[in-house]
Amino acid sequence: MVAPLSAWPWENLGAFKYLLFGPMLAQVVHSRIYEDGSNYMSSWCFHLFLLWHTRFWFFGIFSSFSNMLFINCGRRINHNGVDFNQIDLEWDWDNFLILQALMASAAYYTFPSLEGLPLWNTSGLITALILHIGVSEPLYYWVHRGFHGQFLFQNYHSLHHRSAIPQPSTAGHATFLEHLILTAIMGVPILGSCLMFNNGSLGLIYCYIVMFDLMRCLGHCNIEVIPHQLFDAFPFLRYLLYTPTYHSLHHTEMDTNFCLFMPLYDAIGNTLNSKSWELHRKISSQIGIWIRLTSQMIVRINL
Ligand SMILES: [Zn+2]
Ligand SMILES: [Zn+2]
């Protein structure tokens, strides 16, 4: 028997899972045809639908980039290729996008004050940043450490770690329970600024979610794109921003580097992998274009 909430509720639907967007799409179409289009719920559904599309293609573009060996072969962290087993395993990586769209619809019905958010409010951005650093980051750190306990790891988190070579779709590859918790963690800065401090905006929701996706893709792209010179110039930045090398180390040495995006919490929790910066420097120093001529022969052109 599988552990409670480990399987996705629409696991048996296959490609028909996208029909779950049907009611949202129907709401938008109905409003455009039969109403004047100003119904806020239809516009909320429109934004959810637009956001889902944007995120889906964003992950796709990041995956394409991480597979462009002709420009990034020298910066690859793990030089092995992704095998067919991993591709099959991560086939439904986008389940969390559906879950988050459904949870956002539920949030709209639960909190009517979400109606009529302004397009932009700068103070909301600051509130969200504070809530992210002060609540979401430590919460994720402790929950992630908890998921490495024997029971939770065996029944839930091991699925994410079964992907031997991280790639952007690996970021979405986890159990239903883990993504429920991650969605709640993402929701803290958004709902906090919109509901508690009344300075949220549509722009904030778009920016926060796209930045969150960007950072998740970055950690799993298997290409070191952060130059070590950045950390040389601003040493404290290495505690505020993780790198692809940093999260890859979590996939190989699982008792270290648990943070969401900020290594500061690993430093506080004494779980920071001592090889993190040295390995990052080594990989990010490899400047040049690598060309794979045959399966055995790789030529490097120094720039
Ligand atoms: Zn983990
Ligand atoms: Zn990971």
UniProtKB/TrEMBL annotation:
One of the record's GO molecular function terms: oxidoreductase activity
Domain Fatty acid hydroxylase stretches: 130-271
Source organism of this protein record: Punica granatum
A matching Pfam family: FA_hydroxylase
Record localization: Membrane
GO cellular component: membrane
Keywords: Membrane, Transmembrane, Transmembrane helix
Transmembrane regions: 56-73
UniProt cross-references to InterPro entries, sorted A to Z: Fatty_acid_hydroxylase (IPR006694), Sterol_Desaturase_Related (IPR050307)
Family from the record: Belongs to the sterol desaturase family.
Protein name as catalogued: Fatty acid hydroxylase domain-containing protein
GO BP term, example: lipid biosynthetic process
